[in-house]
Amino acid sequence: MPEHQVRRALLELLAEVGTVTATVAAERLGYSSGLCSFHLRQLARYGHIEEAPHVGGRARPWRLRQEEAAPADPSPAAGFGQLARGLEDESYQRWLTRRDRAPLAWRRDEAFSAVVYLTPEEMGAVAEAVRRTLAPYQDREQRPAARPAGAEPVALIARLFPLLPDAVGEGG
After folding, report:
1. Is the N end or the C end of the chain the one with fewer CB atoms within 10 Å?
2. Around Cβ 92, how many Cβ atoms within 10 Å?
3. C-alpha distances out from residue 101 to 81, 98, 126, 163, Å
């Protein structure tokens, strides 16, 4: 399993519950506690999470870094979007540096971008169309038997957002 999937799952769990130990993360996510412990330490090493205050014992609770979650929104999930984008970018950079070592059939990627003019409702409809397109493949992560021969994990990153003018009332 690629590292970013474990780290993303840990970040999502932390955003959901606030504080977690490697043992609890392992129980909730279905990974080993050693694997969770390793990735929690890596996330802390790169400044994404921090140890939460605790009283004695060997258990090390972790939480999202407080300064990342505090400014605009005090919820633990506030800093998750930025962390997830960082992991996505890290994964893409790793792909770019290793692409020449991938099997020939996998050496291309399907990166593209577009600017289109949409209403808020249309933007929601485009997002829903992407989700519907992916739906038949979503269970393959949890059910390896559903994967066809030769299937590999593939990242899909879609960001739909309005390109707002610099000042209210400008352009458009």
Report:
1. C
2. 15
3. 31, 6, 34, 37
Are both 16 and 92 inside the same structural domain?
Answer: yes
Place of tokens 């990166």: 111
pLDDT of residue 118: 94
Residue 60: predicted pLDDT: 86
- Radius of gyration over alpha carbons of the chain, in Å? 19
Query: Do 123 and 102 belong together in one domain?
Result: no
Can you state the angle between helices 33-45 and 22-29, rounded to 10 degrees?
120
Region of residue 147 (left: phi > 0; alpha: psi -120 to 50; beta: else): beta
Q: At what angle do helices 80-98 and 3-17 cross, to 10 degrees?
A: 180
The string of pLDDT tens digits covering residues 15-57 is: 888 889 999 999 989 888 888 998 998 888 888 888 888 777 7
Contacts of 51 (CB under 8 A, 6+ apart): 44, 60, 61, 62, 63
**What is the C-alpha separation between 77 and 80, in angstroms, rounded?**
5
What letter represents residue 110's amino acid? E
Number of domains in the chain: 2
Prediction pTM value: 0.50
